[in-house]
Amino acid sequence: MTSFPAPVTLGTEQARTRLHELTVIDVRTPAEYAAGHLPGALNIPLDHVRRALPEIRHAAERGHVLVVCASGARSENACKLLAEQGVTTATLAGGTGAWAAEGHDLHTSAACDTRAGWSMERQVRFTAGTLVLLGLVLGLIVHPALLLISAGIAGGLVFSALTNTCGMAAMLGKLPHNRPRAADLDATLTALRSR
Strands across the sheet with 42-43, in order? Predict the structure, then answer.
């Protein structure tokens, strides 16, 4: 079995002082990115990282690449995926949440509607909570076997915590409001090639 080096983790202060020399890739959804991102960050959602591999590899050959997300979990997964392809990157400890908590500015897109920009974590909590309540109500009103919906969601949440993955986030990431427009992704890849 081939082992790949663990991604390097930069603290917010390390990243801030080196920001001018880093290519920053934000792997959150377009709505999350639009609501606030590190200065100069390019948005390539996690499920598009493989498509962007040639451009990310090119950027990594020219300088250091920092991958960020909301809390660090998605960026760590992206860094591992890139490491498997021979691309060395770093991740930001605590993600954009830690960046903002340290008092550093987040840039927003000009057309950002913050009402529509729910973080993926918030979307997962809302969806999981809704499904659990639905399972409980249907189990009480329709048939007790429908309580298994709630049990299935609980099991999924435990599995998510143990593996540091989230199948529900992967499914929610495929919804139209979480997908980049093709033109936006193409523009991002073009910008990445020119770095």
Answer: 8-10, 90-92, 64-68, 22-26, 42-43
